[in-house]
Amino acid sequence: MSLFCAYFACAGGEALSSARRRSRRALLPWLLLLGPAMHFDVPDPRYTRSAHSHALLALAVRLSIGFVVLLWLIHLMNWGLDLDPSPFGIRPREWSGLLGIVAAPLVHSDFAHLFANSLPLATVGATMLFLYPHSTLRVLPAVYLGPGVLVWLFGRGSVHLGASGLVYGLVGYVFVAGLLRRDRRAVAASLLVVFMYGSLVWGVLPIQPDVSWETHLSASLIGALLGFVLRKLDVPPRKRYVWEEQAAEDDDEELSVADSDDGSAPR
């Protein structure tokens, strides 16, 4: 509404020249087109501030941090026992590499590799679980197993391991979901992901030979595709203003009056 108020405020006044008035009229169709697209719904505070929402946030944080702790325990065990993580990685087009589809996201080559994945997994994982709890049930299995299958089929002849596929898949979903939804929380999460992890885009390019860009690329595409497919899932209830509720009540009254008039009309 502010766009239309600004338009008429600028267009009003007799002192404006005819050329300026014509330019204002030329802008009106664009305002009508862009006005709804630039509007973002505000989630209902009764939903966002509810005990259920707070409990969901606490659960999301616990689960994401718990998974990161599990990864550290696995790596510390491998390090303490001097175990080679390579047998648990994905070896493309080798039968022995099929185990890596399930095990590869749980093992890392060194502490630097694990540390690089820990913070993104904790933050983006908690964001995903909190904002999209129902979508998570579909997205997590897809970004956990899907990239491994694609890498086994089409990847380079190397050993691919690490949880970076999960990171890229979740980032891809949160980013695309924020672009397609008019929920302010989803938009804010999308912008935060871009601000914090925008540099991850370089990981989908075959620049560094020791980086599994195939895993990153396939996980990003899977996450982005699911962000589009599941765009109507986990949409929070929109905040309704007093004037909207009053308008709905007036419409209901008009409908009831019209129905009563139809029922009393002579036949």
Q: How is the secondary structure organized here?
A:
Layout: H1 2-11, H2 18-37, H3 45-48, H4 51-80, H5 100-103, H6 111-131, H7 133-154, H8 164-180, H9 184-197, H10 213-229, H11 242-264
Helix pairs in contact: 1-2, 4-6, 6-7, 6-8, 6-9, 7-8, 7-10, 8-9, 8-10
Model description:
The radius of gyration is 26 Å and the shape is globular. 68% of the residues lie in helices and 0% in strands. It folds into two domains: 36 residues, no CATH class; 185 residues, Rhomboid-like (Rhomboid-like fold). It is mostly helical. It is built from eleven helices and no strands. The N terminus is likely disordered.
- The first-level CATH class of the largest domain is given as Mainly Alpha
Into how many domains do the coordinates divide? Answer: 2
- Counting helices, strands and paired strands, the structural category is mainly alpha
Radius of gyration: 26 Å
The first-to-last residue Cα distance is: 46 Å
Order of helices and strands: HHHHHHHHHHH
Question: How much helicity do the residues have?
Answer: 55-70%
* CATH fold annotation of the largest domain: Rhomboid-like fold
Mean pLDDT over all positions: 81
C-alpha geometry: globular
* Second CATH tier, the architecture of the largest domain: Up-down Bundle
Share of β-strand residues: under 5%
Name the poorly predicted regions.
1-11, 30-37
Count of DSSP strands:
0
